[in-house]
């Protein structure tokens, strides 16, 4: 096959190397690049390089190979925008080792505020990348997920994720506060009915919603004032933690000393405080690992014990009984009621 044959593009303007990158066929890619090295610099219809396509389709081995021979994404066809695309897709695909190399090789990307918001948002929503576990346990879980064709997180991935976060957040934290807040807040949109500005891409609150405690801790460590930030509904991260039943985030309140007493009374836009957040039913998926209404109620009552002392819990119990048609003829349920009373 001649070099000009390798340069041919299909109707979507993809070369054979682009297709190999999308499929993760590293062997075929190596053969083509060895025969025609400049294939790396032939973009697709919208400027997508083979490296970008590999990251977009989540092919870690292919991304590592192509980035290794890309000369730090230099060349006439590369731009700051296209480099930013690759960085964003690497983070979204969990290829944090390459993402770390990119920010070290291309520090100018840290100056792009919109890109930083997207990168931090992807990290905030990837809770699994920061859940540190024993290596033997991870390997057992991964073997199961491989069979189910689910995303497999290696121990190295988790290490690189935390290191990558510390690198970019360390650089962001040295910026002026107004810039930091702009990055964390993200772009706004206008509500159709009221034309009021809302910010749906707030990094901190996306992390709070999914329970990404480690991510939040890293941000607060360098920017403690984040504990006072509120979303469009005037909820703090602790309000969201209570509402979503993320106990580890809520526990952070007890590590900030007397300021806890200033945060807990804060009310949202509907005049609800944290106790109201507890009173609302949690998402069904938060109780999936708890078998039966009795144990589910027991877990819910643990939240009320923090805010509601004494026999005020009985009111909550009776409400739960009514909603879940609690059967007191069952010995287990009756014993649980006696313990509460």
From TrEMBL:
<dbReference type="GO" id="GO:0016020">
    <property type="term" value="C:membrane"/>
</dbReference>
<protein>
    <submittedName>
        <fullName>Ankyrin repeat-containing domain-containing protein</fullName>
    </submittedName>
</protein>
<dbReference type="InterPro" id="IPR036770">
    <property type="entry name" value="Ankyrin_rpt-contain_sf"/>
</dbReference>
<keyword id="KW-0812">Transmembrane</keyword>
<dbReference type="Pfam" id="PF12796">
    <property type="entry name" value="Ank_2"/>
</dbReference>
<keyword id="KW-0472">Membrane</keyword>
<keyword id="KW-1133">Transmembrane helix</keyword>
<feature type="transmembrane region" description="Helical">
    <location>
        <begin position="302"/>
        <end position="323"/>
    </location>
</feature>
<dbReference type="InterPro" id="IPR002110">
    <property type="entry name" value="Ankyrin_rpt"/>
</dbReference>
């Amino acid at each position: 096959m001649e070099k000009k044959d390798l340069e041919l593009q299909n109707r979507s303007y993809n070369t054979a190397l682009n297709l190999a990158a999308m499929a993760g066929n590293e062997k075929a890619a190596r053969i083509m690049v060895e025969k025609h090295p400049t294939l790396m610099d032939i973009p697709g219809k919208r400027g997508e390089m083979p490296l970008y396509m590999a990251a977009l389709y989540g092919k870690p081995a292919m991304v590592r190979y192509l980035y290794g021979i890309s000369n730090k994404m230099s060349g006439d066809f590369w731009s700051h925008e296209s480099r930013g695309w690759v960085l964003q897709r690497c983070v979204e695909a969990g290829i944090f080792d390459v993402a770390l190399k990119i920010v070290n090789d291309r520090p100018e990307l840290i100056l792009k505020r919109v890109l930083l918001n997207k990168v931090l948002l992807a990290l905030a929503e990837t809770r699994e990348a920061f859940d540190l576990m024993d290596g033997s346990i991870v390997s057992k879980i991964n073997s199961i997920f491989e069979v189910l064709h689910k995303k497999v997180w290696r121990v190295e991935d988790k290490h690189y994720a935390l290191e990558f976060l510390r690198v970019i957040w360390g650089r962001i934290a040295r910026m002026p506060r107004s810039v930091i807040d702009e990055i964390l807040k993200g772009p706004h949109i206008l509500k159709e009915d009221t034309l009021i500005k809302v910010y749906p891409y707030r990094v901190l609150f996306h992390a709070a919603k999914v329970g990404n405690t480690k991510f939040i801790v890293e941000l607060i460590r360098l920017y403690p004032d984040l504990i006072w930030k509120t979303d469009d509904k005037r909820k703090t991260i602790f309000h969201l933690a209570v509402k979503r039943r993320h106990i580890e985030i809520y526990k952070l309140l007890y590590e900030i000393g007397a300021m806890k007493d200033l945060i807990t009374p804060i009310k949202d836009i509907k005049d609800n405080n944290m106790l109201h957040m507890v009173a609302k039913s949690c998402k069904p998926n938060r109780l999936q690992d708890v078998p039966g209404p009795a144990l589910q109620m027991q877990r819910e009552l643990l939240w009320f014990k923090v805010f509601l002392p004494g026999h005020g819990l009985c009111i909550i119990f009776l409400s739960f009984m009514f909603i879940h048609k609690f059967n007191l003829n069952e010995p287990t349920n009756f014993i649980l009621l006696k313990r509460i009373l």
